[in-house]
Amino acid sequence: MMGPVHVVLAPEPGGGMRLRRLDDPDGDAGPGAVADATAAVRALERDRSGDRAAVRWTWDDTAVRYPPLLADGARVERAHDLRLAHRILRHSTLASGSGLATAPPGPWDEPATPEHTPVPRPRAPQADALFDLRPEPAAGARAHPGGAPDAAGAVAELRAQRAAVAGSDDPSRLRLLLAAESAGALVAAEMRHAGLPWRTDVHDAILTEVLGPRPPEGRRPARLEALADRIRAALDAPPTLNPDSHPDLLKAMQYAGVGARSLRKWELEQVDHPVVAPLLEYKNLYRLLTANGWHWLDAWVEGGRFRPEYVVGGVVTGRWASSGGGALQLPKAVRRAVVADPGWRFVVADAAQLEPRVLAGMAGDEAMARAGRGGDLYAGIVASGAVATRELAKVGMLGALYGGTTGASAQVLPRLARAFPRSVALVEDAARTGERGGIVTTRLGRSSPPPGSEWDAAQAGALEDAAGADAATRARTATRSWGRFTRNFVVQGTAAEWALCWLASIRRRLWELGTAGPAGLAPAPFADRPHLVFFLHDEVVVHAPVAMAETVAEQVRAAAEEAGRLLFGDFPVSFPLTVEVVEAYADAK
DNA sequence: GCTTTGTGCCAC
DNA sequence: AAACGTGGCACAAAGC
User: What is the mean pLDDT of residues A427-433?
Assistant: First the structure.
């Protein structure tokens, strides 16, 4: 078997694409500059198809380069995403001494330019006073001129990345992280290409059932209008009262003597007044209408598929974000509309108690790993004798992961600390590091950002001679808040790494299962193959021909075991899944 | 008129 | 008015 060939694919300044083999930096793979990149990619993938990952592509940005290939029905086995890798290496404490990390900011530090972003750009993240994560422009840094890096630039960047990894404190972990991140980018593009099967007629029926028929533009659906009347009646308010206006509604509620100071659900639930029931229901239906109503259907579902844009690494911790359509917040109420194609099924799998298990693995916590062996980690904690009930075990663990300081979660923390000292110490250490303004790093090497300028200012303010009590309070609040962030970062970030490895393994295994006879409704190259259609932090949905569903379920389980081994080697922490084969997403769980 | 901010709820 | 992490999104109000 030949080793893999490494091929850089980059745009030519004058148009078209260039394929350059890395082992032959002065020459070009096959045709060199090509007008039809798909044909060239397809030919090379086919020539080497006997070998797993026989072709290793490198390009600037999977989200830009891959969709056109997929549109032509071409799939690549493996592709290194330079921009995603650069971002990780630039900040990782494992590679902090590298040339890549110490160089002044360059084009690879720029976010993807508008030309790089095929779908509507997400709104700029709002600057939070405390968590200002936007990179601070260094002196001398200037905007990326706009054009994508050419082949020479991509080769140079790849070499810098390889050097940074090779010279790092843990090359194998970083190598795995970059491979997983890059594979995730392929999965994201493929899921968008394939789309999540969506039955517009079922969705419309759900809306009609709970809201009434679709009203003319600008009018309330009948059920909402009726609830608005009941709200007005309960408040003795005039017909002009608009329940969508918070100030008006709050005023009317105050006048009627409702003892709520906000319109939050949890607060309304605590007051006893006839307006509460219709108001809560109004808010419920209003949310469905505005977030996933007919407008959403018109905007996001086409040809029986929902195609969201996933933003790989879009969250600081390494989780994915999404842009448009709210793919990561699909409410349970509309999941009935997610129906598999005729003759196909969904294999829905979700990792049970992923974050505490990941914590056990990171901490080398044998006791916690043992508690997780039976499938339900929280039940295992109860069985260990540490706490009395499953609910306490759950809130206690979540409190440890999030930094909860009140209520039941804080009360059971000492008991958890006694029973699982290694796990608790790991998150406490991460919190202390953050409180000092330090940086924490995940299992595979993704590092947290340093605190922003607002944080520094708060700390400095408390040290000034004239500093008052409120300056001290502000500094303390900022300190603790950043500690909660770094505490959670290590666990959430490592869980995201596990999930990336899981996804990558599922993707490869599904492809290796091959085809299943006649083509279905999915687009090429997935028409006759099981394929991923949805991912949500610790959950995946595979769309598969009926006859293959059980095999797919087995492979998804095997992939979870593989992910555990990749991150934690022989350490005996398990990652059990809930796996179901269903026709509609709503039927899972 | 437009953009930004505040509110509140959805997902994990 | 949350307490306790990460996000996206829609709307009304406020600001320019």
Answer: 97
Indicate yes or no: strand B within 7 A of the C-beta of A121: no
Residue A477 Cβ < 7 Å to strand B = no
pLDDT tens-digit readout, A431-475 = 999 999 999 999 999 999 999 888 888 888 888 877 777 888 888
Q: What is the pLDDT of residue A140?
A: 31
Q: Is the pLDDT of residue A2 over 90?
A: no
CATH T-level fold of A308-353+496-587: Alpha-Beta Plaits (3.30.70)
Sorted by where each begins, the domain ranges of chain A are 5-136+147-192, 202-297, 308-353+496-587, 355-491
pTM of the predicted structure, to 2 decimals: 0.93
CB A190 within 7 Å, strand B: no
Q: Measure A364 CA to C3 C1' (Å).
A: 30
- Give the CA-to-C1' distance from A502 to C2 in angstroms: 36
What whole-number distance in Å separates Cα of residue A376 and Cα of residue A351? 11
pLDDT in the model for residue A308: 92
Residue A469: how many other CB atoms lie within 10 Å: 8
Half-sphere exposure of A128 (CA within 13 A, CB side): 11
Is residue A589's beta carbon less than 7 angstroms from any atom in nucleic acid strand B?
no
Nucleotides of C under 7 A from a protein CB: 1-14
Nearest residue by alpha-carbon distance to C1' of B10: A329
Parallel, antiparallel or unpaired: strands A17-21 and A539-545: unpaired
Residue A33 dihedral angles phi and psi, to the nearest 5°? -75, 130
Among A271, A270, A244, A240, CA closest to A256: A271
Determine the pLDDT at residue A129: 31
Closest CA to A469 of A498, A443, A477, A485: A477
Amino acid whose CA is nearest the C1' of B4: A126
| CATH placement of domain A202-297 | 1.20.1060
Is residue A328's beta carbon less than 7 angstroms from any atom in nucleic acid strand B? Answer: yes
- Measured from Cα to the C1' atom, the residue closest to C6 is A315
pLDDT in tens, A293-308: 999 999 999 999 999 9
Nucleotides of B under 7 A from a protein CB: 5, 7-12
Q: How far is the CA of A67 from the C1' of B1 (A)?
A: 38
Task: Write the pLDDT tens digit of every residue in A338-367.
Answer: 999 999 999 999 999 999 999 999 999 999
The dotted CATH code for A355-491 is 1.10.150
Place of tokens 């026989």: A54
